[in-house]
Design brief:
single chain; nine-stranded mixed sheet; 26 strands
Length: 951
């Protein structure tokens, strides 16, 4: 064990275990507060604080309040701003595909207007393109608006009312009306309305979890402390925290955004949202596709104009080629596919506020997880009791008194004294959690253990009422109470850090009575306490003695004690976390614990849940991170297989996230406290706790776990990976048929055929009428069993990888050959010269109908082919996605209507097909499926199924 780790272990034992002490992370000082000399106020005696802050024990006068309100403003945080509805809607038209189509529609309208005579087909094309844009925008807006559930959550963290002294009178007023210098009166259960310097404190303790992430109550005093970071000052309380015990009176140091809570808010607001990998790849893909479409259209225009074709007709023809290359249905299909992922995650208790975050979660390579409330239940639980040299296990977790104590008889006096020496209360509620603790959670855990052993704390208190109390303080590291026994005598109970209690003991309670405490006994107690602390337990010793009266001196109460035993407790991990961590390991996802807690506690929890398996994991504190430059931090993140970052501040978390992103990692950050918010927003994926998390954390995150379960993250990652796979499936599906639309046009151009084998209106009908529904069904494919058995894809991996492009050209090439064959076979079979064909020629109309129907039918088989990457679709089950079959049949039915219904024939210039024509097209489709199945068979033979995962 290194000297540093040895020092941590010794300190933990002396302070009552790893969770003892004030538990605050090492923080940098907050931003300066004009006119409020915080460091000097911390070191002043309470009587001098009023003068330093230009206040008085009677509070402020109305005139002073008016001046300070004008200077400092209301005590509130700015409301979260959201884009207006009309801005959200307009944003749908800024997508590059939408811009290309809008420009194409405008130019087509212009061509129709300038053409003489005006061609109705050109107007139909312009309206059809415009309709596509409007449809895509409507679908995208509806999905985004329904998926993003955001609220003015920061305001909910600020208490609404508080009690103050003003002009000598005690008043209750809105927290937003507080100003620096106000005198605030606090009682147990109050939310702290602003940052305050305490001038009175009676047994006061606060829960700083919202700021530091630590759930252990922290004692607060009114005495001066040395100047230093405000969060470490024991004579200050902060906005957003809660007073869990005692009473106090404080002078307001800062309000609104000048508070420590406001500092975190400013960090959160300043952190830019990161683009998800899918956003970056879709944007790059859109630029490339738009460039290819424009270049191809321009090339064909340049080729056809010199051949004598009419200028306007040639221009409209070139636009048709552009439309053929632009996947009009992609934006709508992408939005709906992501929305399906959102709904699936919501059913698994993961609420995603932004559609694109679904895919980004699936590409996560590192999870930076908080401890308290994320991996653990944020509920202290006694798990081990020690008395007379014998350990006794305690079953059950949380505050529900469900469980039992092994052999409770020898522990009766230990647990009775521990319960009597407690101020907490165990209450039953009607909410989701049936039991909760009012007051100190450590004392609550002792009460629960007493109930499990068969004691009734309320009855014990009635039988031995408390007559005096000597509160815990950091110097003594223990708490004592005096009680009146039933026979009128008095006894004292004490509990605290093992070493501190042990030095005050002269005897030990055994089964046969009270016996002197020998040196061997002392060594045994220290060894037992050290063993508990080494397991990450917080250890308390409990003792008692008889006293002479109701209020003896503290020196008499806390000397000549009789040791009753030890209690070891911890914040239990969530039972489902270990399996979730194992799944992350199999999936190649690295887990880094980033917490404000003590290193020993963090390591113990990490070992219990499986994050740490090595003998000596890398552990770094916030102070050590401050001493590292960027290269040192990079070396730590790169070299450590298992890493725990402890005692860290919000700035440290953001720095770690940035360093990981700099290394090319896709980072997800989990957390529940306000102190997690900046890192949640800065990460690729911020994951907040829905039930126990603070509102500020939920606002900053893009995903909220409704059940607070780390296991839901693993499920969400699997669903995110499945979404990405499905996106690739429907991209292959969509772009392969674009090749089938483009190649016949190019073939006809270079073969000298004067007309197009497929018109722009027919292309739009295929893209939106026959392809969108099957693509959506592909986007709803269920998660494949092996999705979490491979490592995350690299951040730099392109959506259109070499394998994807090869598959697009393979499938698209087969479709293109088929439709070109049926088109030119039909044209040549008629015996009519190319130059004699017109748009109204029956043979030409039959030929372009064959091309459109050929693409639709081959796409039905193509949809079946792309359902799996390697596995045979017959093994996966042809009927396992009934929505896909229904969508394909709908497309073929729509094509039949276009072929046979006279009104649609007039719009699309089609003709009825004979049964033999459909048989030929079906044969081409079956050939495509057979060819793809042969390719998958060869792939399975050539390369094994990839396996992966980080160690």
């Amino acid at each position: 064990m290194s000297p540093e780790r040895a020092r941590q272990s010794t300190t933990a034992l002396r302070d009552g275990g790893p969770a003892a002490g004030d538990g605050a992370p090492e923080q940098a000082p907050p931003a300066g507060r004009p006119g409020v000399p915080v460091p000097s106020v911390l070191s002043l005696p309470a009587s001098a604080v009023f003068a330093a802050l230009e206040s008085s024990p009677r509070g402020l006068t109305p005139a002073e309040i008016a001046v300070r309100r004008a200077r400092h403003g209301p005590n509130e945080l700015p409301a979260a701003s959201h884009r207006r509805v009309w801005r959200r809607l307009l944003a749908q038209f800024t997508d590059l595909f939408a811009v290309v189509l809008l420009v194409s529609s405008a130019i087509t309208f212009l061509a129709y207007w300038l053409g003489q005579p005006r061609d109705p087909a050109t107007l139909q094309l312009a309206l059809a393109i415009l309709g596509v844009v409007l449809l895509n925008a409507g679908i995208g807006f509806a999905q985004e608006y329904s998926a993003e559930r955001t609220a003015e959550s920061l305001q909910a963290m600020v208490p609404h009312t508080c009690r103050v002294l003003r002009d000598g009178e005690r008043r209750e007023l809105s927290a937003r009306d507080l100003v620096p210098g106000d005198v605030v009166v606090l009682e147990a259960g109050d939310a702290v309305p602003a940052d305050c310097r305490l001038v009175e404190a009676q047994e006061a303790a606060v829960n700083n979890a919202a700021l530091t992430g630590e759930s252990d109550p922290v004692t607060r005093v009114a005495e001066p402390v040395p100047p230093g970071p405000p969060l470490e000052a024991r004579n200050c309380v902060f906005m957003g925290t809660d007073l869990v015990a005692g009473t106090g009176k404080g002078v307001v140091l800062a309000t609104g955004t000048a508070t420590e809570f406001g500092r975190i808010f400013r960090l959160t607001a300043a952190a830019p949202r990161q683009q998800t990998p899918l956003q970056r790849q879709v944007a790059a893909m859109a630029r490339r596709v738009a460039g290819v479409a424009l270049a191809t259209g321009a090339l064909l225009f340049a080729v056809r104009v010199p051949s004598g074709q009419p200028f306007v007709d040639t221009f409209v023809f070139s636009l048709g080629v552009m439309v053929a290359l632009v996947p009009e249905g992609l934006p709508a299909t992408l939005s709906v596919s992501l929305a399906i992922g959102v709904r699936r995650m919501a059913r698994r208790h993961a609420l995603v506020k932004q559609l694109l975050a679904v895919e980004a979660l699936g590409s996560t390579s590192v999870i930076c997880t908080d401890k308290t409330g994320t991996l653990t239940q944020a509920e202290m639980t006694v798990v081990l009791l020690w008395a007379d040299g014998v350990p006794h296990a305690v079953s059950g977790v949380g505050y529900a008194p469900d469980g039992e104590v092994a052999d409770p008889a020898p522990l009766r006096e230990l647990l009775r004294a521990a319960a009597l020496c407690s101020n907490a209360r165990l209450v039953r509620t009607a909410g989701r959690d049936a039991w909760r603790v009012l007051g100190d959670t450590t004392e609550g855990a002792l009460l629960v253990a007493a109930v499990k052993a068969g004691l009734n704390p309320a009855e014990e208190e009635r039988r031995a009422p408390r007559v005096a109390e000597y509160p815990f303080d950091s110097a003594r590291k223990l708490m004592s109470t005096v009680h009146r026994d039933g026979d009128g005598t008095y006894f004292a109970c004490a509990k605290g850090a093992p070493l501190e209690v042990l030095t005050r003991c002269e005897a030990v309670e055994r089964g046969d009575g009270r016996t002197p405490l020998t040196d061997a006994d002392r060594r045994g107690v220290i060894e037992a306490a050290d063993g508990m602390a080494g397991r990450g337990l917080r250890v308390l010793a409990v003792a008692r003695r008889r006293v002479s009266g109701p209020r003896p001196p503290i020196a008499d109460v806390e000397s000549e004690l009789t040791l009753l035993g030890l209690a070891g407790m911890y914040d239990p991990p969530r039972p489902e976390v270990r399996d979730a961590v194992d799944a992350c390991r199999r999936a190649g996802i690295r887990i880094v614990m980033v917490t404000g807690d003590h290193p020993l506690t963090a390591e113990a929890v990490a070992r219990r849940v499986g994050i740490v398996r090595e003998t000596a994991p890398a552990v770094a504190t916030g102070t050590e991170l401050d001493a590292m430059d960027d290269s040192g931090l990079d070396a730590l993140l790169t070299g450590a297989r298992e890493l725990l970052l402890c005692r860290v501040s919000p700035e440290h978390k953001m720095r770690v996230v940035t360093a990981l992103q700099r290394r090319g990692e896709v980072v997800a950050v989990t957390g529940d406290g306000a102190n997690d918010a900046p890192a949640l927003k800065h990460a690729d994926i911020g994951v907040a706790m829905g039930a126990s998390g603070t509102d500020v954390a939920r606002e900053a995150a893009v995903m909220v776990l409704l059940d607070d379960s780390f296991a839901s993250i693993t499920t969400a990652v699997g669903l995110g990976r499945s979404v990405y796979r499905n996106i690739r499936k429907f991209l292959i599906y969509l772009f392969s048929h674009n090749i089938a639309e483009l190649v016949p046009i190019l073939a006809a151009t270079f073969a000298g055929f004067p007309l197009v084998p497929i018109t722009a209106v027919q292309i739009l009908a295929i893209d939106l009428g026959s392809d969108v529904l099957p693509a959506l069904a592909l986007g709803a494919e269920p998660m494949e069993p092996d999705v979490m058995n491979s490592p995350p894809r690299p951040r730099q991996e392109r959506l259109f990888s070499t394998a994807v492009m090869g598959r697009i050209f393979f499938l698209g090439g087969i479709q293109a050959l088929g439709v070109c064959a049926v088109f030119f076979w039909h044209i040549h079979a008629s015996g009519i010269p190319y130059a004699d064909f017109t748009r109204d020629s029956p043979v030409y109309r039959e030929a372009i109908t064959m091309v459109q129907a050929g693409i639709v039918v081959s796409q039905f088989f193509n949809a079946l082919a792309v359902r799996t990457d390697r596995q045979s679709v017959f093994r996966a089950g042809l009927l396992s996605n009934p929505w896909l079959l229904a969508a394909g049949c709908f497309g073929i039915g729509l094509m039949a209507a276009i072929s046979y219904a006279p009104p649609l024939q007039a719009v699309f210039h089609t003709a009825p097909l004979a049964p033999g024509d459909w048989a030929v097209l079906a044969a081409f489709g079956a050939l495509l499926l057979a060819a793809e199945e042969l390719r998958k068979w060869a792939l399975r033979r050539r390369s094994p199924i990839p396996k992966g995962g980080r160690p």
